[in-house]
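Intended use. Records such as the Asparagine synthase entry shown here are meant for training and evaluating sequence-to-structure methods. They are not intended to support clinical decisions.
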Amino acid sequence: MREGLIPAVLGTVVIASSAAFLGSKYKMAATGVLGFGLAHVVLGAIDLFEHR
């Protein structure tokens, strides 16, 4: 399995799950979780491109 694939997929799942909570009363928490998911995707993408 390619290095960086797991964090990128995990980040995508976290972004999708936090997007479901953006319209609820937990908007601030969902925004924070969205940021963590975005960071996972970015770092996973860096690993994927670095280890081609």
